[in-house]
From TrEMBL:
InterPro entries: DHP_3-monooxygenase, DhpH_subs-bd, FAD-bd, FAD/NAD-bd_sf
The FAD-binding domain, residue ranges: 308-369
GO molecular function: FAD binding
Domain of life the protein comes from: Bacteria
Name the record gives this protein: 2-polyprenyl-6-methoxyphenol hydroxylase
Ranges of residues in domain 2,6-dihydroxypyridine 3-monooxygenase substrate binding: 177-289
PANTHER family: MONOOXYGENASE-LIKE, OS06G0597600 PROTEIN
SUPFAM superfamilies: FAD-linked reductases, C-terminal domain (SSF54373), FAD/NAD(P)-binding domain (SSF51905)
């Protein structure tokens, strides 16, 4: 299928991937509508992509080694026992690449074909299906906050868990609060030298290719290194899961508290939790994080009953929100774009394209949401008594979480992806 006009609402990771997919598929015009001004490189902190998922996405032409990444090979599950690093519960194989969100976004943005029009600071107020074209053919209309309206053959909602497009596709679907939150933080890894007195040099106490998951009753802290904005200067990234403080937070409606906006009470609370529950090395590591690099993200689930309606299509977190425990969010978003591009090339009409995309990604997204809930219950909400766990029991507990699922780190594509050359990148 060739030609047509496509609007992508949202210009983050999913938005860039879908814009590239539509342009390479043969769309006559692709417009990305991003509410923010300027680059998004300061957004987010760390994320990971399983080695197998990376290989598939690289074969499809969406990722490559030119985007900065950090290799991870092992994950140590730990619990406090009075020692600086804690007791080792399990040494788990962990074949992942870690990324800095902003650097991954920049890489995807740079690889978007030059034909794509990016409009920054142009927020969307709403979308709707229409058949108001002069020839009576269906399409979709984007209504801008500025008051204007524009018609496209297809509108892609890549606008995240608070999606405007999802409201038009399935207004009954809303993210559900899981009952706990995660604090996130990051800082330059060179600051780890301040902890040498606790467990020796950082590369010995905590090797650069190792992730750590420190477990405690009612929560856990996940830590790993990611690339820094400056080459050769990696960063420490951490995610701390726990119930929120009784601070009058309203978390039932989708929200987050971005870096620099967390109150002193919120940042002090995570520091108190770390001091109370984590071994000294990891508690001191959390304390190295400046307040302006700490933010709060409530944990939500979202499972939409459908991804398409008329000429509207949902992508990434607009379609499904998966708890971070599955380490699949970025791969899921780009996989959506690969499936969309593949469906485009195999379809004779817009109706075929939308039906194929729904069939390919709907079931996979719902399965990931189910697995994320299972992992959250097992690791945070109904975690075992860590004092009784040893390597054999922890490995068996992990296998039980994954039983009957497609696995950790995201689902494999159902069929091999064949790369197809597209227009030159900008």
């Amino acid at each position: 299928m060739l030609g047509g006009t496509v609007a992508v609402v949202g210009g983050s990771i999913a938005g860039c991937a879908f814009a590239a997919a539509a342009a390479r598929g043969g769309a006559r015009r692709v417009v990305v509508l991003e509410r923010s001004y300027g680059e998004l490189t300061d957004r987010g902190v760390g994320l990971c992509v399983h080695d197998d998922r990376y290989a598939e996405l690289a074969a499809a032409g969406h990722l490559d080694d030119g985007i900065a990444w950090h290799r991870l090979t092992r994950r140590h599950w730990l619990a406090a026992d009075g020692s600086p690093l804690g007791r080792l519960l399990w040494d788990q194989p962990f074949p992942f690449r870690s990324y800095h969100w902003g650097l991954l976004w920049r890489g995807l943005r740079e690889r978007t074909p030059a034909t794509v029009e990016h409009r920054l600071g142009d927020p969307v107020a709403g979308v709707r299906n229409t058949s108001a074209a002069a020839d009576g053919t269906p399409g979709a209309v984007v209504r801008l906050v500025s008051g204007g309206e524009e018609r496209f053959d297809l509108v892609v909602g890549a606008d995240g868990y608070r999606s405007v497009v999802r409201t038009a596709v399935c207004p009954e679907a809303r993210p559900g609060y899981a009952g706990y939150v995660c604090w996130r933080g990051s800082f330059p890894a060179e600051r780890l030298a301040a902890l040498d007195h606790l467990a020796g040099p950082a590369d010995l106490a905590w090797p650069a290719e190792h992730a750590a998951t420190v477990c405690f009753p009612g929560g856990q802290c996940v830590l790993y290194r990611i690339p820094g904005q400056e080459p050769g200067r990696p960063m420490v990234n951490w995610v701390f899961y726990a119930p929120p403080p009784a601070a009058g937070l309203r978390l039932e409606d989708p929200t987050s508290i971005p870096p620099g906006a967390a109150t002193e009470e919120l940042t002090a609370h995570v520091a108190l939790l770390a001091e109370r529950h984590l071994p000294p090395y990891w508690a001191s590591l959390i304390a190295l994080t400046p307040p302006e690099r700490t933010f709060l993200q409530p944990i939500y689930d979202l499972d939409t009953p459908r991804r398409t309606s008329g000429r509207l299509l949902l992508a990434g977190d607009a379609a499904t929100v998966v708890r971070p425990h599955n380490t699949s969010g970025a791969a899921k978003a780009v996989q959506d774009a690969v499936a969309f591009e593949d469906a485009w090339r195999r379809s004779a009409s817009w109706e075929d394209l939308l039906a194929t995309y729904e069939r390919e990604r709907g079931e996979a997204g719902r399965a990931l949401v189910t697995l994320g809930r299972r992992l959250g219950r097992a690791q945070v909400e109904q975690a075992p008594d860590w004092t009784t766990m040893d390597p054999a029991r922890t490995a068996a507990w992990w296998d039980e979480q994954l039983a009957g699922t497609a696995g950790f780190g995201g689902h494999a594509f159902r069929s091999p992806v064949v790369p197809v050359a597209g227009p030159p990148a900008s």
